[in-house]
Amino acid sequence: MNWALGLWIALQGLSLAGVLNYWRHLPRDRQEEAPGGVVVLLSVRDDWDGGPELIARLKAQTARFRLVIATSGACSAADALAAQEGDWVQLVRAGIAVDEGQKVHKLRAALRSLRPEDRYLLFVDADILPPTRLVGRLLFPLVRGKADIVTGYRMLLPDANPVAALVGAVEMQLATLPRAASATMPWGGAMALTRDVAQRLDLDAALAGRLSDDMAIGLAGWRAKLRLRPVRDLLVASPLEARGAMSFGVRQYRHIRTNSPGMWAVACAVVGAQAVGWVWALGWGGWSAVAMGYAAAVGRALARRQIIAGVAEPNQTKAAQRSLWWDVLAPFAVCWAHWGMQLVAACSSRIRWGGFEYWVTRGKVVRMERVE
User: Less CB within 10 Å around the terminal CB: N or C of the chain?
Assistant: First the structure.
């Protein structure tokens, strides 16, 4: 029992130290760059509503850029925006894919539309609420030669439903992991690289046939031994509704499982240790083990509260902090839900995403069907 308690204490200490490490390395001097030749690539569905808040936030960026919106076909909102905004917005129609993810298909079409003067490529998702510093912060490491691929990460804003908050708590575990260039995978919701790096990776070929854009780019970057750098203060707000929240979590891990089984196995082992540890603590560890688990959980929640306060806009803080209550009241439930998503992700290679059902093998689409 003593050795088990010691192992449990060490595990809790390491998890708390990881979050504290993230908080400690949160940049205070958030430098930006605003070079010329910047293009932002945005893939949208054909039923996109025009994203008025997203567009307003992109217009408010401190760095200037050209926006390329990639659609499958006819998107009335994108057409209207391109007509209204003139040279700032370029519209690309990719058509329907037959052997790759629809988002990847649209991004490849956007890449083929680049102009000779486009030197910096930024990728953003349609469901984010970017801070005004997003573009400038992503560009800073590239312009200064400190990185080859730069990335932020999502910060979910769950609605008031407990299920959404639980998924938010799971995602917060990932968002506040210590970041290092050797262990960073880019997130396609806020990612940047130079045109030279894109050519070095042969980005069009690297994406061809793939379902996940960021996994394909990240793995290609790892193989090429590029410097992948996270910007820790770019935890970018992304609203989350309870409906489909669990499926969202499973889908993220299914992307990982189908692209890199080794990465999935490592993540599953780490989370599984916590999940099994909580079973032991609640069943056989006694009050000391439970108290230690809760003490570490409260410490992590307090550190994450400070991280959120340091990166979120004031009107986003309350929603972002909803997930922290799960850490305080039932940290074991967060671990079990997290591990459950990982295990369910391994049960199938089918991914439903963006109106299509995909069958994926080794990260490549082998079959796809449109769904309602």
Answer: C
pLDDT per residue rounded down to tens, the chain (372 residues): 689 999 999 999 999 999 999 999 999 999 999 999 999 999 999 999 999 999 999 999 999 999 999 999 989 999 999 999 988 999 999 999 999 999 999 999 999 999 999 999 999 999 999 999 999 999 999 999 999 999 999 999 999 999 999 999 999 999 998 877 666 899 999 999 999 999 999 999 999 999 999 999 999 999 999 999 999 999 999 999 999 999 999 999 999 999 999 999 999 999 999 999 999 999 999 999 999 999 999 999 999 999 999 999 999 999 999 999 999 999 999 999 999 999 999 999 999 999 999 999 999 999 999 997
Confirm whether 309 is domain-assigned.
Answer: no
Does residue 103 fall inside a structural domain? yes
Its pTM stands at 0.95
**81: in domain:** yes
Q: How far is CA 59 from CA 66, 123, 188, 350, in A?
A: 10, 15, 20, 37
Spatial separation of the C-alpha atoms in residues 122 and 217, rounded to whole Å: 13
d(CA 164, CA 239) in angstroms, rounded, equals 10
